[in-house]
Amino acid sequence: MARYIGPKSRIARRFGEAIFGADKVLSRRNFPPGQHGNGRRRKTSEYGVMLAEKQKAKYTYGVLEKQFRNMFEKASASNGITGEILLQNLECRLDNVVYRLGIAPTRAAARQLVNHRHITVDGKVTGIASYSVKPGQIVAVREKSKSLEVIADSLAGFNHSKYPWMEWDESAKAGKLLHKPERADIPENIKEQLIVELYSKN
């Protein structure tokens, strides 16, 4: 499956946020990349601001353009606030749930664990990172994968209480999605209304 594998620090510097996780480069060079990154910048147009917000959401959740567009169309066809539903659906992707449960240190690492079939959903091995986890489903580490160092290191000291829409069973190395998260509980700094406005212009 295609995914972004380019320079992540450069992307994080563009948005001025550690969207891929802790970033030493960003902390040292907290200005946009490029020859003139530390100088005066032209004011970004309204369209440019909306486009940047969409790009930030895509990179944050590791979703490519076609997938993101499909998720937006699905959200816009649902009852409710389109932007909030879009973020809720992104949060319910299997790779993101694995990341939120602390099984992996980053979404990219979570995606790799899923792709390499280390994760189960309701007891069945699931190798599709974009799988949409439903409320009530159990996401767990596969029995033979529980000793993996990357998983043990990620779970060590992880605070499972910070995401109230999930619960964690340490002995089983399994978590349950209790319900879709409320917008106020999603910590990502994304202005979803700008994304809705962008797509409404196209």
UniProtKB/TrEMBL annotation:
Alphabetical list of Pfam families matching this protein: Ribosomal_S4, S4
UniProt keyword RNA-binding present: yes
PROSITE patterns on file: RIBOSOMAL_S4, S4
Domain (Small ribosomal subunit protein uS4 N-terminal) ranges: 3-91
Repeat as UniProt keyword: no
Residue intervals of the RNA-binding S4 domain: 92-156
Keywords tagged on the record: Ribonucleoprotein, Ribosomal protein, RNA-binding, rRNA-binding
Superkingdom of origin organism: Bacteria
InterPro entries on file: Ribosomal_uS4, Ribosomal_uS4_bac-type, Ribosomal_uS4_CS, Ribosomal_uS4_N, S4_RNA-bd, S4_RNA-bd_sf
Gene Ontology biological-process entries: ribosomal small subunit biogenesis; translation
One GO cellular component term: small ribosomal subunit
Subunit organization: Part of the 30S ribosomal subunit. Contacts protein S5. The interaction surface between S4 and S5 is involved in control of translational fidelity.
Biological role stated in the UniProt entry: One of the primary rRNA binding proteins, it binds directly to 16S rRNA where it nucleates assembly of the body of the 30S subunit.
Protein name in UniProt: Small ribosomal subunit protein uS4
Species per Swiss-Prot/TrEMBL record: Alloprevotella tannerae ATCC 51259
